[in-house]
Amino acid sequence: MITRLITILLGMPIILACVYFGGIPFLLLVLALAVISVNEFYNLMLKKGLFPAYFVGNIITIFFIVFASYALKRNWEPAHSAIFTLAASAALISGIFLKREKDTIVDVAVTILGMIYVGWFFSYIIFIRSLTEHGGYLFFLLFTIWAMDIASYLAGRAFGRTKLAPAISPKKTWEGAVFGFLISLVAASIFSWTADLEIFHALTLGILIGIFGQVSDLIESLIKRDAGAKDSSSLVPGHGGVLDRIDSFIITAPLLYYYIVLFILK
Known about the structure:
It catalyses: a 1,2-diacyl-sn-glycero-3-phosphate + CTP + H(+) = a CDP-1,2-diacyl-sn-glycerol + diphosphate. This protein is mainly alpha-helical. The protein has helices at 2-21, 23-47, 54-73, 79-94, 104-122, 124-130, 136-159, 174-190, 199-227, 242-264, and strands spanning 163-165, 169-173. A two-stranded antiparallel sheet has the order 1-2.
């Protein structure tokens, strides 16, 4: 717990400063998180005896993040979807050069999965940051997910009894999940001021975050369990890997972005 707290105290100011000021520091932060995470994902696949195309996956992940930032400057956000065809094609072509007698298609599949799971989904963090001058919606997402994660972790340790998904994550409990969900509603209400959200929208987003943030966490747990690993890596002291820290954002970020665009900024 002490190691966790020290890591949080050291890392949080850097993250918050990058989000607030945006620009190149924020882009570099998102790039670093994405590149480290996609390599952690590929390393997990390597433990399963699979051989993803690291180079292609990394290049495409970087391309997704950088293109998202470039698209904002050109009012070109819809084209963000169009590049997926090129990225998938590049991953498929990489199969020709993997030089494996069998399981090449599986290697290509996990290469594509990694670049979508990390690069594509996480690029929506760039779009969310752009919706306000100083990243108000992203602050809302960060604070709500952090509050939910901390609450579910502490509640699970304190009074968790009923296993949520023992085959996937033995330590997660229904008590922790429910408490985390409730705290996500409270946090969404408290931090609604960061993006000047009406209480109805704040609570709706709190519900989405409370559900899909934990589902996103379970998806990463499923990946680790399938690979026979406890953490995605040991890079972040007391927390495991970078992918372990951003997993709740991966599914949640696109949902939050499209809700804001379709129902708040319409």
